[in-house]
Amino acid sequence: MKYGISLNVHETLQDIMDKSREIERLGFHYIWVADTPSQRYAPIVASAIAESTKRVKIGIGVLSPFLYSEREIANAVKTLIEFYGERFEVCLGPGDPDQLRRVGISLLKLRDIPMRILESKRKIEEEFDRSGLNVPIWIGAQGPRMLKISKFFQGVLLNYAHPELVRWATDVIKTSGGHVKLGVYASAYVYSEEEEEVKQLLRMAASTVVLGLSKNVLEKLGFHEEVENARVKLKEGLPPEDISRFLPEELLEKFIIHMPTTKLKEYLSALKSIGIEHLVFGFPQNFSKKNIRVLAEALF
C-alpha cells in the first residue's frame, strides 16, 4: 500500500515547505494538496512542495472542472512537470459545495455532473497526450453515480474511512464492471497521546465532509434528516466550528481515521483485505511535524 499525507493551502508556504521536506524524509510516497479556491490555488502550493522535495509524488486535487477549464488544469500540471519532472498526479471531482459557493458556483444548479467530469477527464488526457505525458488522473467519489464512472480513471479516491462504507463503495465499482486502483482519502488523526485541540479540528473536518454529502449517500446511511437540520443551522448563522455538535457522532466516525497508533495496523489490514492500495491521511494529521512523525513511526 502507498501512503500519503495531505497539506493545506491555507498554511504559510514556509510551513508547507518545511513539512514537505519532513514528509519525504520519513518515507511517505505521496503528498496531496487539496484545492481551496476561496484561499489559494492548489498548483501554486504544489510548486512549493516540489521545490522543497526531490522524490515524493505530488497529488493535486480535488480540482473541479466546474471552476477551472480543462486546458487550465492541464497547462498547470504541464508547467509543473516542465520545472520539476513527472511526479505529479491529478484528482478530478465536483468539488466541495461550500468552497464553490464562496466563489459563485452552485453545484445544485448543475446537471449530468458525472458525465461532464468524465468528458473533462477525456479533454485533459488529450492535452497530456499531445505533450507526450502520462499523468495519472484520479476521481474523487462518494455517491453511486460517481463511483460507477471511476472505471474510466486511473484511480479512485474514496472520501470514506470506515471499512464497511469502503467495502460498499468498492462493490458498487465492481458491479459496474470496473477495475481501478482503489484509494481512500480521509480526515485523520492517528496519535500516541491524544491532544484535545487536534481532536476538535478532526471533528470540524469531518463535519465539512458530511455537510457536502449527496442525498443518495445520506439516505443510504440513514442520516438525511439530521444533516439537513445541520445545514439549516449553518445557513442561519451558526459558526462552522460549532456545527459538529448537531451531527451524530456515529455519522462523523464513518469519515475519519481516528485511533491510537496501536490500532493502526488492524485498520490497515481491514483496508488491504478490501483491495485498497492507496491511503491518504488528511487534515489534521498534518497539524504539526510531531503528528506527522507519530504517524510515520506507526506506518514504517
Walkthrough of the structure:
This protein has 13 helices and nine strands. It has one domain: Alpha-Beta Barrel (TIM Barrel). Strands 1-2-3-4-5-6-7-9 form an eight-stranded parallel beta barrel, surrounded by seven helices. The chain is globular and about 50 Å long. By secondary structure, the chain is of the alpha/beta class.
List the helices and strands and how they pair.
Layout: E1 2-7, H1 13-26, E2 30-33, H2 42-52, E3 57-63, H3 70-84, E4 88-92, H4 97-102, H5 113-130, E5 137-141, H6 144-149, E6 155-158, H7 163-175, E7 181-191, H8 196-211, H9 215-221, H10 224-235, H11 249-252, E8 256-260, H12 264-274, E9 278-282, H13 289-299
Parallel strand pairs: 1-2, 1-9, 2-3, 3-4, 4-5, 5-6, 6-7, 7-8, 7-9
Helix pairs in contact: 1-2, 1-13, 2-3, 3-5, 7-12
In short:
The chain is an alpha/beta fold and 300 residues long. It has helices at residues 13-26, 42-52, 70-84, 97-102, 113-130, 144-149, 163-175, 196-211, 215-221, 224-235, 249-252, 264-274, 289-299, and strands spanning 2-7, 30-33, 57-63, 88-92, 137-141, 155-158, 181-191, 256-260, 278-282.
Structural descriptors:
TIM Barrel, eight-stranded parallel β-barrel, 300 residues, 17% strand
Number of strands: 9
Mean pLDDT: 92
Radius of gyration in whole Å, from Cα? 18 Å
Class derived from helix and strand content:
alpha/beta
Q: Kindly report the spatial arrangement of strands forming the biggest sheet.
A: 1-2-3-4-5-6-7-9
What is the strand content? 15-25%
Helix segment count?
13
> What is the CATH H-level superfamily?
Luciferase-like domain
- The CATH architecture designation is Alpha-Beta Barrel
Order of helices and strands: EHEHEHEHHEHEHEHHHHEHEH
Question: Which stretches are poorly predicted, pLDDT < 50 over at least 5 residues?
Answer: none
Major β-sheet annotation: 8 strands, parallel, barrel
CATH fold-level assignment: TIM Barrel
Number of domains: 1
Global morphology: globular
- Reading off the top of the CATH hierarchy, the class is best stated as Alpha Beta
Q: Compute the separation of the termini in Å.
A: 11 Å
Q: Give the helix proportion (percent range).
A: 40-55%
